[in-house]
Structure formats: structure tokens, C-alpha cells
Amino acid sequence: MDRYVAFDIGDKRIGVAVSDPFNTYALPSQTYFRKGFKADVEAVANIAKEKYATVIVCGLPVNFDGSEALQTEKTRKFIQALKERTSIPVVCEDERFTTKMAHETLISEGMSRERRKNYVDALAAANILDGYLQKINKKGAE
Predict the structure, then answer these.
(1) 13: Cβ–Cβ under 8 A, 6 or more apart, which residues?
(2) Which residues pair with 14 in a beta bridge?
């Protein structure tokens, strides 16, 4: 059975989420604070390996209308380096609104702005992974 690990790749932090054993929902796991491009690629590859990932899902940031932005290109560069570093298949998933949804969830729970920055990226990664799992589970059901 596949084990999915998702990453929300930002300029300062990378959120991590993992699938449950039955691949029905995503669980926020951790937030990695970036140290430098090469070190970050190595760390992400190691996290995927430590989580026993068989598939890596990376959020791909695009504009509201679906067009690509500067952040899209930065993320694609990171994803390409990750693909070269690991033998685990890497797929991309649209990440529009996932960070906004994560912020809204944490605000609704009364979490302070300072504490939110430690959790928002992992929760955004879980939102990315949830979207991907819903998509593949829907295909499997058809």
C-alpha cells in the first residue's frame, strides 16, 4: 500500500503532512525551517524516507486564475532537485487556498499569531495532501 507524504514548500518554511495508513485523510506532521537550498532538498528527501513515503506530493503555487507566478518557478526548481535526489516518485498538486484555509482554521481555534507560524505550513501540507487523496480515491471508486 502506498504511503503519501506532502510538502508545502515556502521560502522560509516547509510544511510536512503524512497520509493515514488507509490513505483516506492527511495528518499534519511537522514544519521544517529552511537552511539553504541544498540542505533543504536533502532534508526533505530524508523526511520522506523517514516517513516511509512511496509517493511525495508537493504543493504547486499558482495564481488564482491558474497561471504561473514567480513562486511557481522557485517551487518547480526545488521539486526538480528533489526528483534528482530521491527515487521516490514526486507529483505536484495545486495548492491554491491551502495556506489561507490553514490560517483560518488556526485563527478559529484561537491560536496566537506567533504560534500559528509553527503550525500553519504543516496544516497547509495536510490540506494539499487531502486534496490529492480525494482525487485519487475518487478515481479509484469510478
Answers:
(1) 31, 32, 33, 34, 117, 121
(2) 9, 32
Locate cell 499534519: which residue?
Answer: 28
β-strand 4-9 against 13-19: which pairing, if any?
A: antiparallel
Q: How far apart are CA 47 and CA 54, in angstroms?
A: 12
Model pLDDT for residues 48-75, shown as the tens digit of each residue: 999 999 999 999 988 788 888 888 999 9
pTM, 2 dp: 0.88
DSSP string over 32-97: EEP--HHHHHHHHHHHHHHTT-SEEEEEE---TTS---HHHHHHHHHHHHHHHH-SS-EEEEE-TT
**The three cell numbers locating residue 32:** 521544517
**Non-local CB neighbours of 101 within 8 Å, separated by 6+ positions:** 124, 127
How far does the chain reach from its first CA to its final CA, in angstroms?
A: 19
Nearest-5° Cα angle at 2, 93 to 43: 65
